[in-house]
Amino acid sequence: MYTEWTSHLPDPEDKKEFEKAVLRSRHVLERLSTILSMKEHSIQIHETGLKQFESPAWDYKQAFINGHKAIIQYIKTLIDQKETKNNDRYSRRDKPANN
Q: Average pLDDT of the chain?
C-alpha cells in the first residue's frame, strides 16, 4: 500500500487500522476507479476531436486536459492497491530503485 494513505498517522496501530479500513472499502474504491475510467475515456474522445484546435487557446486547453489525465492516473494508481505478501506498506512501484 502506498504510504500516502497513512502518512498522516504517526501511530503504527492507527496506520494498521487505517490500512484495514482502506482494504474494506474495496467496493467503493473499485466503483470510483470505474467512474474515473469513464471520465478518462470521455476526455480522450474530446481530446482527439479536431474542433478543439479551432480555438486560438488550444494549447492552454490541451495543458488543462493533460492535467486532468495526470490526476486521474494518480488517483487510479492509489486505488489499485494490492496487499503485499509480507504485509509491508510498500508496493513494488513504491520502493526506491537500487541505483
A: 82
